[in-house]
Amino acid sequence: MSPKALRAQEPSATDPAFIRNFCIIAHIDHGKSTLADRMLQMTGVVSDRDMRAQYLDRMDIERERGITIKSQAVRMPWSQGADTFALNMIDTPGHVDFSYEVSRSLAACEGAILLVDAAQGIEAQTLANLYLALENDLEIIPVLNKIDLPAADPDKYAAELASLIGGDPADVLRVSGKTGMGVEDLLDRVVERIPAPKGDANAPTRAMIFDSVYDSYRGVVTYVRMIDGSLSPRERIQMMSTRSTHELLEIGVSSPEPIPSKGLGVGEVGYLITGVKDVRLSKVGDTVTTLKSPATDALPGYTDPKPMVFSGLYPIDGGDYPDLREALDKLKLSDASLNYEPETSVALGFGFRCGFLGLLHLEIITERLEREFGLDLITTAPSVIYEVRTEDKKTVTVTNPSEFPTGKIQAVSEPVVRAAILAPKDYVGTIMELCQSRRGTLLGMEYLGEDRVELRYSMPLGEIVFDFFDHLKSRTQGYASLDYEPMGEQEADLVKVDILLQGEQVDAFSAIVHREKAYAYGVLMTERLKKLIPRQQFEVPIQAAIGARIIARESIRAMRKDVLAKCYGGDITRKRKLLEKQKEGKKRMKMVGKVEVPQEAFIAALSGDTEGKEKK
Amino acid sequence: MAGALPLGDPAPADGLLPVSAAAGSGDRPFGMYLHVPFCRVRCGYCDFNTYTSDELRGVKRTDYAGQAADEVRLSAHVLRESGVAPRPVSTVFFGGGTPTLLPAADLAMMLAAVRDEHGFAPGAEVTTEANPDSVDRDYLATLKEAGFTRVSFGMQSAVPHVLATLERTHDPERVPLVVAWAREVGLQVSVDLIYGTPGETLADWERSIDQALATRPDHISAYSLIVEPGTKLARQIRSGQVAEPDEDLQADMYDLADERFQDAGYGWYEVSNWSTGHDTRSRHNLSYWTGADWWGIGPGAHSHVGGVRWWNVKHPAAYAGRMAEGASPAAGRETLDSDVQEMERIMLGVRIADGLDIRSLAPEGRVAVAGLIADGFVDAAAALRGHLVLTRPGRLMADAVVRRLTDY
Ligand SMILES: Nc1nc2c(ncn2[C@@H]2O[C@H](COP(=O)(O)OP(=O)(O)O)[C@@H](O)[C@H]2O)c(=O)[nH]1
Ligand SMILES: C[S@@+](CC[C@H](N)C(=O)[O-])C[C@H]1O[C@@H](n2cnc3c(N)ncnc32)[C@H](O)[C@@H]1O
Ligand code: SF4
Ligand SMILES: [Mg+2]
């Protein structure tokens, strides 16, 4: 079927001139996994017989279940003429929430395949990764995928790609991951265009960690790209940021199953196992050296990931709190960017305040907690970091509205991001309206091809985390894509709005919002709660307040009838069971003062389910 | 269709009761309920265990009185064999379904079986439910002769559009007639009303109240319409054909009814029941709320003897089969432990005007009374005298009150 390599290059003994390290930049669903499947097949590392769709993704799932190691980087042999090359395909996290991680994976490569669906064109998140790739001086190979689709419009999108990265539209490769068409040419192009890695084999060893994952059988598996020197089994290594030392129990490459090797040399990509159980001892971006002859200078670019978005995570069943703690401890082993500390909420009980890299990170973590650990969770409205300066010149860092100082405030500063929104040009008006209503400032607008536009805004992150994406999607029929990256802080007139039920503050609903939007937020939440909280045996006022000032109010009328006034005959058993059921139901209620609030009401109020349903 | 039977323990084929049931039985009044599971048509809101001729799967209504009389004989046997003290019945109640769909002679025959097997206590109360269009003066006279003392008419409403929504077939003009006939032949009379029917206004309800009072019955039951799952009404509401009953309006209707009944000389003695005096209360009805013993005869009937509750097989065909075999028709039962008995005592006791003895409550329950007084659900003056009696708003919240009294 293909010019499979006659004899693969042996790890640790491969001349860097025959190594190519690359990644694939693609928007979700543009076909990265399918293309990878074809490459695995054509290079012969997975036999036609063993081939299953989404081969590498499946390995991820297996890894999550603790069965095997993630194929974070796959080594594939590829021959050209008499020469055999080792191609390392390095996986990149798909979203800029992880842009730091993405930048580390990119730093491990010399080139990138920019894969774009020939029926869709490029998306905002792809642009951000493309930008990062160019920042890292990678050679870009533009590729249009899915050209077998009837709806594909390769000419149009080839022009779009060429205008974006320069070059001739004719140079844009056209492939189909599905049929395999063009994939051989693509592999050849990788060999031809992507530069071989450079490094000094005789210098002290330096290897960059570009990923670090926890495997329940083998402990932490660290993925490295060798820059200088070499590594071999049983050697003692040192992490340059923490100075911690470990013995190399195993070293190898994924092809795509892990294959232990005699070592790794300059330019190679592989994995290390030291028996360490905590990923924090093996941080992405850190430099690995040897204890015997340590390097003096770490590789540039290491930073500790900083959480940008905070949210309270609470188990729906209070009894699950210890399980939640345990689950977070476990996830932390494989995700060094996850931060959390215990927190209590009047409304929600015991939980954790968690810091995330972004909204997607939050979503992924909560989904994993629910799916892998079987937890039912409530997440509070995401919040960002505010710096609050009080009248007496103290500065308070606020990641939770409840920490907002009560006294006189001199200034509040909030994080701002550069947001890029890509959408068909017909939606420009409605997107601008939305961004304006979210305190966005237009930085620029550019046409990509004929009918698509990229809008660049600076916008407070706090506005983005407050269901901006949902609104963007619904106002553009799902056509717009969003991407954002930090661009500093700004001062703004921000206030904390509290929500009170019968005079009792419901901490989970407090929010820090712009003064001009405080009223709208107050009305929104009081109306939501009015709809969601069942009538009680007494009237329940719902108020929104800034400090002591009430800015919005609603009230839930008292329930007047709660009796089955019917002729019963003698079926007392049924009546009693009904009562028992009602009492059971009450146990699942959270008490705010005297008010019984169903768990679901909190969830719905936090997720905005009430309005969502009406709109659709 | 009729609501499902509870899940319980299996009942033995001979129907014998556990020894615990006999304890103290001599001190408890004993009553008998006789179910008649037939109706000419099924009203859309009704989930009682009743069947039209189409639904009878070959069972003949003409055979029913005999089967019921068989179970009456079985009841005497079982109680005797289980060591329960023999007691004459203080109350008998024929309910349905529509008991009066059977010939008066059938009802008389069933009642005679009760008298023969158990005997009547002095002043025994014997009631039958009756649909206004299923009786005439002769029928009522025959009942009186057979020993019946009371008749309860399903009036429901006096307003044609309300009756139509309820799918009632009787002509409202007939209600005063049948009530008058019943009084003439010497029967006490009760009428049943339903309030809160979709489309019924407060003015409609007032008209029904007035018409009911105009017939001067001895007793009135007023029930709020309950939308039972599985009924045609429930489906109509789900599909939007019929509006959902408005609970606030139902509360207003209850207030109005209680006021008007009170003014007309009818005092409430149970959440949904009013009477002209102590001796016109339905003693049978009260026995459900006060933990008395009773035996329920017929398909799907429920019984209670000394902390054992059981229920019969539901379909008349299944019932007929059991009776033909000479087996107990019981389908399942439960033996209440002391906690459950206490909870039931409170659940049932709060609904009656005689109220609960506050000293009989657990300390947690007694503490809860304070909050109930503060919320206006419990009569303060009575509570100070040691009685827990619900106020009018409290009666409307009776289930919530029970939860608060037993929430520990
Ligand atoms: N017609 C066609 N469909 C493709 C092609 N490549 C991928 N797909 C389909 O596009 C969807 C997304 O592909 P996948 O490889 O999972 O995308 P990823 O999210 O980028 O990994 C799947 O339904 C694939 O079957 C292609 O070349 N042609
Ligand atoms: C056993 S039922 C039937 C008696 C008789 N067949 C009749 O309909 O007149 C006794 C009473 O229960 C009441 N009832 C029946 N179904 C009801 C419901 N779904 N909601 C409220 N009351 C109901 C009616 O007032 C009815 O008169
Ligand atoms: S007549 Fe009475 S028992 Fe029969 S269906 Fe109607 S309400 Fe139910
Ligand atoms: Mg994929």
TrEMBL record, chain A:
Cellular compartment(s): Cell membrane
Sequence similarity: Belongs to the GTP-binding elongation factor family. LepA subfamily. Belongs to the TRAFAC class translation factor GTPase superfamily. Classic translation factor GTPase family. LepA subfamily.
Keyword flag Ribosomal protein: no
Keywords: Cell membrane, GTP-binding, Hydrolase, Membrane, Nucleotide-binding, Protein biosynthesis
Topological type in the membrane: Peripheral membrane protein
Principal subcellular localization: membrane
GO cellular component terms given for this protein: plasma membrane
Enzyme Commission code(s) on record: 3.6.5.n1
Boundaries of every Tr-type G domain copy: 17-198
CDD domains found in the cross-reference section: EF4_II, EF4_III, LepA, lepA_C
Name of the gene: lepA
Protein name: Elongation factor 4
From TrEMBL, chain B:
Entry's Gene Ontology BP terms: porphyrin-containing compound biosynthetic process
GO molecular function, one term: coproporphyrinogen oxidase activity
Alphabetical list of SMART domains matching this protein: Elp3 (SM00729)
Domain Radical SAM core residue range list: 24-270
Keywords per UniProt: 4Fe-4S, Chaperone, Cytoplasm, Heme, Iron, Iron-sulfur, Metal-binding, S-adenosyl-L-methionine
One protein family per Pfam: Radical_SAM
InterPro entries per the UniProt record, alphabetical: Aldolase_TIM, Coproporphyrinogen-III_oxidase, Elp3/MiaA/NifB-like_rSAM, HemW-like, rSAM, rSAM_sf
Subcellular localization, as worded in the UniProt entry: Cytoplasm
Cellular component per GO, a single term: cytoplasm
Keyword Cytoplasm in record: yes
Top-level taxon of origin: Bacteria
CDD domains reported for this sequence: Radical_SAM
Family the entry assigns: Belongs to the anaerobic coproporphyrinogen-III oxidase family. HemW subfamily.
Cited function: Probably acts as a heme chaperone, transferring heme to an unknown acceptor. Binds one molecule of heme per monomer, possibly covalently. Binds 1 [4Fe-4S] cluster. The cluster is coordinated with 3 cysteines and an exchangeable S-adenosyl-L-methionine.
Name used for this protein in its record: Heme chaperone HemW
Organism encoding this protein: Okibacterium fritillariae
Classification of source organism: Bacteria, Bacillati, Actinomycetota, Actinomycetes, Micrococcales
